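Lab channel / #folding
Pinned by the channel admin:
"Please post every new chain as: sequence first, then the structure tokens as a reply. Keep commentary short and put observations after the output so the thread stays searchable."

First post following the new format, from NK:
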Amino acid sequence: MRRKQRVFRKRAEKSDSLPLLRSYLKGALLLVLASAAIILFFGGGFSFLPLSKAQQAVQRRDLDGADYWLGWARSLRSGSATFQLARVARLRGNSFEANRYLALASKAGFDSDRIKLERELANATENPSNETLAPLSARVANGDPDSGEICEVLANGLSRESKFGAAIQILNAWELDDAISPSPAFRLGRIDEYMERMDEAKEHYARSVKRNSEFYPALFSLGRIHLDENDAQGAKGFFEPGLKLPNNAAFKTAYAMCSAKEGGINEARNGFLEVLAMGNDRIEDAYRRLGEPSDRLLAASELGKLELAETNYLDAMKVLDLALSHNPRDITARYTRALAMRGLGRNAEADKEFERVEEVKTALQRVNILRNQIGRDLGDIEARIELGNLLIKFESERNGLFWLLSAATQDEKSVPAHVALADFYESNSAISPKYGALAKTHRDRVKTLTGSAQ
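Reply from TO:
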């Protein structure tokens, strides 16, 4: 009997100790997990998944998706995320933000060679030349893991020099090597468009969209071509996905243009008015994100055409004045405004505007002549400079600057090219402090080339 009591007592004691043991083990496990979490947090371990997702999004050129994942990665103190934020800013054309993030990445101890590469890419994007492109070519030859990013910048730099054959070779090789990125086919489509090979451009843009069904630059380009071909219904199919974007100004404007062509006047008017209510900064940002920066306030210019067609002359005048205050070179808006003036009986003013329109049209007849001239002789620097100055004066500062930069890239010792660039940047120095610095850079270059102390 006593023996049985002792056995029962031992079992009871063992049973009483089990909760204590379980509690101890649970506490120890929680302590280990908490310690691991702290190590992962401060070591950036938790950022691996969102950072990986962000990098994939950047490769697919889903920059809005990259923003989402980088928000998570950055909140978990990842230096790599800060670097990727710099890359996204560069791809969006925001050099100020790109430089700010690179400085933060450097301060956080991120890989200095990756930071150096990103600065090289930004420099070559803004100022393509043999000097800026050569280091990038060497990186590709050495198998740099960021070869895709490098190939895009190289192809764009070669295109600026009108070396389209070399650019196409790079883009084709990149597309074969990278099964994910929609950018190679998109860039090939851009070259096709410039060379007025529209069928080939549509094929390349479609191939780009096949790789990423939400690659909005290619969708927008496809819609724009269909709209130019008077296929408003087909164009709408490409513009519609972009209406869901947080900043849909470009897509909403294009969609409204389709509605206007189809006779949906009220729908088109409301669309244009909604875009104009967004403000110039948001509108410009929307086009820049698509790689479609425009000097024109297209929503105002197109709304003016619509109101003119509806004989709402005063309403037309209001929005056309807005379009011309944004860009006095908008020849379409100026012509439409002259028609509205005539509708209001202001014939003398209208005649002056028509004269101005004819003057611009006559001047721009040289554009195709000069482009053909350059096509026959890539080294014709004088033609590039004349074309650049012509476009700056009569049509588009952005396009004109492209040709002036191409002249300086084609022949880095061309004094007239550097003089033209210095004049351009100097006349626009009030826009940005960077322009004042660029003007000085080109003036100094002229002094070095001529040995002048002026």
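NK: Confidence is low (pLDDT under 50) at residues 32-46.
TO: also worth noting, Residues 2-40 form one domain.
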